Every structure is written in structure tokens, then in C-alpha cells.
Amino acid sequence: MAKYVLAIDQGTTSSRAIVFDKSGSIISTGQLEHEQILPQAGWVEHDPKEIWDNTREAIGQALSKANITRHDIEAVGITNQRETAVVWDKNTGVPVYNAIVWQDTRTQAIVDRLAADGGVERFKAKVGLPLATYFSGTKIVWILENVEGARAKADAGDLLFGTTDSWVLWNLTGGTEGGVHATDVTNASRTMFMDLESLQWDDEILAIFDVPKSMLPEIKSSSEVYGIASGHSLLREVPIAGILGDQQAATFGQAAFDQGEAKNTYGTGNFLIFNTGTDIIHSKNGLLTTVGYKLGDAPVHYALEGSIAVTGSLVQWMRDQLGLIKNASEIEDLAKTVKDNGGAYFVPAFSGLFAPYWRADARGALVGLTRYVNKGHIARAALEAIAYQTREVLDAVNADSGVPLTELKVDGGATANDLLMQFQADIIGVPVVRPVVAETTALGAAYAAGLAVGFWSGLDDLRSNWQEDARWEPAMDPEEAARLLRNWKKAVTKTLDWVDEDVR
Q1: With contact defined as beta carbons under 8 Å apart, do 253 and 441 qualify?
Q2: Pairing between strand 99-100 and 4-10?
């Protein structure tokens, strides 16, 4: 029997391949960043070909570093940036346009058009999502309406759509030579096209969006063999057996399998997922209803999700656009040069505000400035913004579920920032807990694939792998935390109603 499972983590800023052993420990990693293409304000794109090339190279790096071959890999799992849309020609394998990234806001006019009849919650009862630029559906519409020849090709059945899991799977299993065109229920639930109860594409909604069903991948469970890696791959003959959207994968990697369990991932954005078991709960407080996971023929598990658009990417912006830091890790030291935020609050509504506000008209604001404020205060305000946004989402989860969380499991790159994690515990008033393996997104995809082929025998195997690495207890006076949160909420109001008809 092979010794390892390999996970492909196709993220917003990079593509990675990580090899895991049976204990869930990382053996090796390959990683390459891809270009963030920003043609104009509000537009965010990736080159799908660059993503696929980088994925292949990352696989080679991971195998090489571990000094192993495909014969040592039992199965491959895929996790991905969920709502990013790729449309390609099935006959040539060439994308008709760059991937339109989940952060992209160009489709607001399409959202407004669709919301004219029934409002932004027009389809929410069926798909769990409000109409928003965030999701894949309007991105497909934009490509069909704006890329020359795309509509004719789509109507002729020559175009395929996929989130990046489908793009990687199709290429990995042969591409134009018999590539598998599929996705899992978690990614399908982020398109606006999947009925949460039937787990199938909804013909009525597709007709309203005017998207041909022939473009869409087949919806599968999160843990089954979808296909075999082709002969052109370093992983040839290895089964591809797990797919989970990145936030659901992180939840799975945190072993939050049961109703009432939750996690918060600190990545490009922040995403808090609360497992609601086999029950579909429709949020009254600005959260999304989504699919948590589905293992083979077993019942589907649903979740409530609080999606925050800009957290880690705010630090990246301060590095790349402002030049305040040279490396993302430097922001903690810069923030430590001051004892507090100096009265400054940074609301990073670069793509509007996601949960719990869902305000596309918002734009970023740095408020409360005086001449006293320096770059240390701004760095601290940026880190605090991550924690405030998480607090607001957590309040919504508690209100919807009626069962307040007693601790928050966290993962993602920013959990290495002790200052941020302590402030997070202070502002939410419950302990924050980080596991030993912080790469829970890739681990969740590996778990899904390994379960499908018997590498792990069941969920108890995975629960026993989870180990606590660090814990932060609340230490701030509750009255001070309440004052800071009050000022944060005031700062949020300053970002609203910014975008007019002639300002995008």
C-alpha cells in the first residue's frame, strides 16, 4: 500500500502541492505564486494557464523534496479558491478569458439587473446565497456577454465552466483527451445554480441567468474517485478522490465534522464556517447557507458561513501598494512599535463589504486619523480590522444558531501572528485555539481523498490526528473591548454609500 496522500491547494495567491502521511503530518510542500492581474479598479483576474503550469510544477517540487514518486501516493485531493470562474474551450483546452476571481466586483450591473425582479434574496431560499458579485454565476454571464464569440460557442456546446478545482481536475485527468469535467457539492453550492436540497443544477435559475447547462460540470460528492491522473502527469494512474472548496476543506481538516462545530480561516479573506449537520438553516443575520461536505453516498452536511473579503490581502496591499513593509510577517513587529491603534480604524472594504453587511456600495476607509497616528498605528489598525470583522461574523453565527461558541478553532497563515491572535481572543471574549497542523485546507482535501480509497478508515481516525498547538485566552477588560467594537462599527458606517452609478 502507498504511504502518502497528496493534496493540491489551488489558492487565490498561489498553487501548492502538499504530501501528508497517515498521521496528517506534512512530509513536503511545493508552492508557486501566480500573478494578480488588476486591469482596472474592482477587477481581479488570474491566468488559468499559469495556474495549471504552476500546479504541475508544485507537484514536481513536492514529490522531489520528499524523494518519492507516484507509486508512493495513494490518492490525490483538490481544494481551491471557490467562486473564481474559468471558462474554456473543451476542444482546444484554451480559456476564452482570464479567470475572474471571487474578489472581482465588475458584475455589479448584472447583479442589479437580476435583482430588479425579487431583490438580492431572489434565489436565496433555494441556493442559500444572496445575489452578489462574489459568486460564480454572474461571472459566467459577464464572460458570455462580453467576450467575443463566447456566447455562440457556449450555445454550440463547446465551452466548459468550472471553479479552479474543475479546471485542475480536467487537465490532470487528460484535458482534451478525455479529461473529467466534474466538481463537488461544496464548490457547486457557491455558483448560485445548485439547489441545496436536490444537490443538482437548477434549470429555472440557469434559464434566468441564460447560462447553458452544457457548460457546467457534473456534481459529485466531496469524497469519491472522480478519475485517474493521465499519462502526461507525474501522478499518472493515481486516483483523484477528494474535492472540497477551500473553506469547507479547512473545516474538514480541523475535524469539525459534527453539528455545532466551527472554525475560522485567516487567508486572503477570512471565512468562519459553522457546521449545522444535516439541517439547512437559513440565516437571518447576513450569513450564507452552504454545503459543508458530503462523503460518498452518506448524507450531506450543511453549514452557515461568514465570508469576509479582505483580511490577509490587506496586509499584502500594505506591502505591495504602500510599501510600508517588505514581507507580510513584518506587520506584527511594526504593529508592536505602538501600544494601541492611536484612534485609527481601517475598514478594508476594497470589494465592498461581505458578511454580515453585504454592501457592494462600500469602499475602504481609514478613519480616526490625527497627526499623532504613525505607520505603526496603521499596521495595528489593519490587524485589528481582521479581528473586528471576525467578531461581527461570530455574533451573527451565535444569533442564527442560538448556541454561542465557547472557543474558536483557527487556521491559516495569519495565525502565526501572536499579536493578532491575542487581540482576536480579547475582542470575541472566548479562547482562540490553533492546531499543530495549521495547513488545514490542504489537510482537509487530503482527508477527503484518503477516506475514499481506504487510506483512513473513518472520521475517528481523523479526529485522533487533531492536536492543539497554541491557545490564546481573553485578557482585555470587557468594557475596553466593547468601546473598541463600538468605534469599529462607527468606522464601518463611513464606508457605506460610496459607489454611485458613475463610480465603480
Answers
A1: yes
A2: unpaired
| 227 has a pLDDT exceeding 80 | yes
pLDDT at position 502, please? 65
Q: Phi and psi at residue 86, in whole multiples of 5°?
A: -120, 130
Question: Are the C-beta atoms of residues 407 and 473 closer than 8 Å to each other?
Answer: no
d(CA 78, CA 22) in angstroms, rounded, equals: 17
Alpha carbons within 13 angstroms on the beta-carbon side of residue 328 total 15
Find where cell 434574496 sits.
Answer: 121
- By C-alpha distance, which of 168, 193, 170, 173 is closest to 80? 168
Residues in the chain: 504
3-state secondary structure of 440: helix
Asked whether the beta carbons of 264 and 274 are under 8 A apart, the reply is no
d(CA 210, CA 204): 10
Burial class from Cβ neighbours inside 10 Å (0-12, 13-18, 19+) for residue 457 reads: exposed
Which pLDDT value is given to residue 351?
A: 81
CA distances to 78, 271, 438, 446, 474 from 441, in Å: 10, 12, 8, 9, 26
Q: What is the DSSP letter of 431?
A: -
Predicted local distance difference test score (pLDDT) of residue 504: 53
How far apart CA 482 and CA 473 sit, in angstroms, is: 17
380 contacts 341 by C-beta, under 8 angstroms: yes
The C-alpha cell that represents 413 in the structure block: 497563515
Distance of CA 473 to the CA centre of its chain: 27
Q: Which of 254, 298, 295 is nearest to 274 (CA)?
A: 254
Closest residue by Cα to residue 351 from 340, 342, 364: 364
pLDDT of the residue at 197: 96
Cα–Cα dist 358/496, whole Å: 11
Give dist(CA 417, CA 405) in Å, integer. 22
Record the cell numbers describing residue 231, joined without a space.
Answer: 499519462
Strands 218-220 and 270-277: unpaired
CA atoms of 339 and 481, how far apart (whole Å) = 15
Report the distance separating Cα 405 and Cα 274, nearest Å: 10
CA distance 2 to 19: 12
